[in-house]
Amino acid sequence: MEAQTGGTAAQRKQVMNIIWGAMVMAVAIYWYVHLIAGRKEPNSSVGLMITILAVISVGECIGSWIFNRITLADVSQKISRAQLGGSPSHADDSLEQRLQSTAVICLAMFEAVVVYGLVGSFVGSPYPNTFEGFAVVGLLNLVMYRIKAYPTIFGLLEQLETLRRVK
Where are the domains of the chain? Predict the structure, then answer.
């Protein structure tokens, strides 16, 4: 039984790394599509739409980081309580799922920023380098999430695995 549950954290880490890699590859694919399709002639009537997409993108990025921080703090608190007083084992699985779901949601929000830039490029953004700007912001968030959030998530997964072994 221990070997079966012992692999859970490692498997989740592997899946999360694969998902992150797929998101980064998607950005590369969007960039390739942008290069192939080219940029439409600037259309001043879509300037407001591009500005709105930029504001939405900033909101998504900030919101994702806040969501991540709140979720990780909550999960960490629940793990601490479980370590002190014990909790039902099914809670461990739900916390693992919550950690993985949080990562997927945040990564998807960062990738969406790049898609907005691609849309802006296709509709003829009047602003130079619209796609490139959105793509860099999305890619930087993806990389920073991998550098900053993944170690914390992986540490929480390890704590859950240790907690499971103790029970």
Answer: 2-166
